[in-house]
Amino acid sequence: MLLTFVNCLGFFSVVVFAFDCEFPENTAGMSIPLLSVALATLMALFRDTGLSQKVTQDALALLIREAGKALLDPRLAMSSHHAATSQLDEATSSQMVRAINKVRPLESFLVLSF
User: What is the secondary structure of the chain as a DSSP string?
Assistant: First the structure.
């Protein structure tokens, strides 16, 4: 079985839900545990050579695009400009950005191997 574009849409519907499922005053509206599990799933997928080879190019493109969009979410920015409006503490924001960035090099490696 391949990880196709359609399968990824289902996965990313969970990620989108995790970004907007909580009340805004609670961790800026994000479910940090759900996002953490989703990112850990991606890391496990791309660290396993056998599994990662079952990811189609279309699915990989979607994963890279969505990871990039996640990194651009203003709630993850902890600059002084955004700190006043974000309810996400600096440690959690930093943890989420690091986790997303860990997935991106693994995805890029796969792009080069296709």
Answer: --B-HHHHHHHHHHHHHHHSSS-TTTGGG--HHHHHHHHHHHHHHHHSHHHHTTB-HHHHHHHHHHHHHHHT-GGG--SHHHHTT--S-HHHHHHHHHHHHHHHHHHHHHHHH-
